[in-house]
Write a structure and sequence with these properties.
Largest sheet: none
Radius of gyration: 19 Å
Distance between the termini: 68 Å
Number of strands: 0
Helix content: 55-70%
Shape: elongated
Number of helices: 8
Oligomer: single chain
Order of helices and strands: HHHHHHHH
Structural class: mainly alpha
Strand content: under 5%
């Protein structure tokens, strides 16, 4: 069967089995949270482990290998979002390579899930530190931390002053 026929068949099977895909906007929010150093939001998105996520495509018939492919996609996109946010491209790609190689050696879903959270928070924390690089005093650094942790809540000058 030619590729175009295989794709048509795959689309047919997806329609017939009512296959759903993960929404696009939450995915953008997730990578934007990593890029902006928002650890609170990244932890929220990672509450559901990688294997628990609904709407991920089937990239391999082997469940563990399938999750490794999705892990690799996450690593690649996180690196690119962080580069866009100001991270040195060598650092971003080195992190990506490291985590992909480590994921490749994972033997269980739990091991891969733990590594996924660790990678996402590693990128996020590095972006948070990058944003604070030009900060010169501890109180200002603490305020920036507070702001990043509470981006989606009302922040007043009185709260920051405390």
């Amino acid at each position: 069967m030619q590729i175009s026929n295989k794709l048509l068949y795959k689309e047919f099977v997806n329609r017939e089995s009512d296959t759903t895909r993960a929404d696009y906007l939450p995915e953008l929010d997730f990578y934007t949270a990593i890029k902006s150093g928002d650890t609170k939001k990244v932890r929220f998105f990672c509450k559901e482990t990688l294997p628990e996520k609904k709407g991920l495509g089937i990239l391999s018939n082997n469940a563990l290998q399938n999750m490794k492919y999705h892990f690799t996609i996450t690593a690649a996109l996180a690196a690119r979002y962080c580069i866009e946010g100001g991270m040195d491209f060598k650092e971003a790609y080195t992190l990506s390579d490291y985590y992909i190689l480590t994921a490749d050696e994972a033997k269980t879903m739990d091991e891969l899930s733990d590594l996924h959270l660790k990678m996402c928070l590693d990128y996020t924390n590095k972006m948070k530190q990058l944003k604070k690089k030009h900060v010169c005093s501890k109180p200002i650094a603490e305020c920036i931390d507070y702001i990043y942790e509470n981006l989606h809540t009302r922040i007043t000058i009185d709260v920051l002053a405390k």
